[in-house]
TrEMBL record:
Keywords: Membrane, Transmembrane, Transmembrane helix
TM regions (residue ranges): 12-29
Single biological process term from Gene Ontology: lipid metabolic process
Gene name as annotated: LOC102668883
Lineage: superkingdom: Eukaryota
Lineage of the organism: Eukaryota, Viridiplantae, Streptophyta, Embryophyta, Tracheophyta
One Pfam entry name: Lipase_GDSL
InterPro entries: GDSL, GDSL_lipolytic_enzyme, Lipase_GDSL_AS, SGNH_hydro_sf, SGNH_plant_lipase-like
GO CC terms: extracellular region
Entry similarity comment: Belongs to the 'GDSL' lipolytic enzyme family.
Full protein name: GDSL esterase/lipase EXL3
A molecular-function term among this protein's GO annotations: lipase activity
Organism name: Glycine max (Soybean)
Amino acid sequence: MDLLCQKLLSQWLLVILWCSIIATIFQHVSVVSLPNNETVPAVIVFGDSIVDTGNNDYITTLVKCNFQPYGRDFGGGNQPTGRFSNGLVPSDIIAAKFGVKKFLPPYLDPNLQLQDLLTGVSFASGGAGFDPLTAELVNVMSLSDQLDMFREYTRKINEAVGRNRTAMIVSKSIYIVCVGSDDIANTYSQLPFRSAEYDIPSYTDLMASEASNFLQKLYGLGARRIGVFGLPVIGCVPSQRTLGGSLNRACLDSSNQAAMLFNSKLSTQMVVLGKKFSDSRLVYLDSYNGLLNMLQNPAKYGFEVTDRGCCGTGNIEVSLLCNRYSIDTCSNSSNYIFWDSYHPTQKAYNVLSSLVLDNKIKDFF
Ligand SMILES: *[C@@H]1O[C@H](CO)[C@@H](O)[C@H](O)[C@H]1NC(C)=O
Ligand SMILES: *[C@@H]1O[C@H](CO)[C@@H](O)[C@H](O)[C@H]1NC(C)=O
């Protein structure tokens, strides 16, 4: 082979190598294009198990999932990281959508490097709620604990990269808030503490007022581009169907009504705050109708099983109850919307994130 041929061949190999690296990075996630050359330095997440990427691994609580079969399809397979799914969770998927990175690490990971901090972390803690009692009952990090960690985070990056760059990161980053399901599904529906004192209208008032306080504090700390997930159709997750008590495991209507009522209060509060803070972008993300659409039209999105999770019987197993000894765990969850009795599969999270977020991206800028 002459020299020219060799040179062409090696250039081709380089191109193929790069293509496959890029294809691997964005294998599962659609990257959306951002308007007017906008850049997003970091994605920063607050919330509960839907967006916890492993913080609960580092605290003393029973709300954990850093064991198999969690993470069964993560990375190279069988990597339980503390994400409550078989693979990626919305924090990762959203970070990739905004072109920031493929995995959003948990803030409490002791191995984080400066570069990890500069591109964003998750402060979320599985089991948290808007209602401060929700986190307290299961000994996890409340939203106010999560804001304290965010304050510490900004101090750290300030020390490392200085005030100007910190100000840029804080004001230009995308903030995602996803919490509240546990208030309805656990604290209110399963335990006596709140239901003795509140009815659904007054409890959702309490939640909405906590949500508004949280968003005002977050704005006060410099956040400007904030997306807030409404509650999903929480009465239709497998554990709520089981605990709801009807023989045919129908969706628990009272939880769905509560979720819709809360969502309308939340989105109203967000409009009010958006007017008060005119330099902010507050984006309401409707996961209720997104998940409902998937549950009602599973075949459209490539799903078959909608009313039970893959793990164990799928009716009740979640967190510690979903483990390597769970009997009847499905061998391939690709037809399942739910991974355990409460949390969607990676595939369902991918579909849901696209349904909920893709046409809202422009509203962040
Ligand atoms: C920070 O920004 C201000 C105003 O833009 C500028 O005057 C100053 O030189 C910057 N400081 C550093 C350390 O870059
Ligand atoms: C699960 O099934 C899907 C569809 O049949 C297939 O594409 C995928 O490779 C399977 N995954 C595993 C881990 O076997």
